[in-house]
Each structure stands twice: as structure tokens, then as C-alpha cells.
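Retry 2 of 3 after timeout on previous attempt. Resubmitting C-alpha cells to design endpoint.
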């Protein structure tokens, strides 16, 4: 999956969870901002796992591109 596609998938997953929750966070702008933050947190956790590993350059590069795409959403 391309980084842009993965970024959209992560964002959409968090977006739907937040949008459908029984809270006052159903405003679209707020939900979008929260979904972005959640996706970036998830990506940062993935990067923490892979950065120290040898031979993980391609994986780290991929997730950094995904993070960049999430920030563009």
C-alpha cells in the first residue's frame, strides 16, 4: 500500500471512531483534527519500534512518508 493510501486508511479509521462516538465531538472539523492527531500518535509508536532495529530503513522511511501524508489531510 502506498504511503498516501495508508495515511487515508489510518485517518478514516480514527475519523469514524470519533464521529460515531457518543460524545460532543461530532463536529466535523474537530473530528478531523482529532483523527489526524490519533493517526500521528499511532505512527510515532510504530516508528519507536522500528527505528532502533537494524535493516529497518525501508520500513522507517515508509512510515515517515505515511506521517507526512497524514499531516497533509
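Retry 2 succeeded. Sequence:
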Amino acid at each position: 500500500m502506498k504511503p498516501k493510501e495508508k495515511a487515508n486508511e489510518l485517518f478514516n479509521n480514527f475519523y469514524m471512531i470519533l464521529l460515531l462516538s457518543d460524545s460532543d465531538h461530532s463536529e466535523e472539523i474537530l473530528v478531523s483534527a482529532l483523527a489526524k492527531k490519533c493517526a500521528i500518535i499511532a505512527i510515532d509508536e510504530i516508528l519507536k519500534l522500528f527505528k532502533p532495529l537494524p535493516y529497518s530503513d525501508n520500513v522507517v522511511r515508509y512510515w515517515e512518508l505515511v506521517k507526512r501524508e497524514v499531516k497533509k489531510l
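Attempt log closed. The mean pLDDT is 90.
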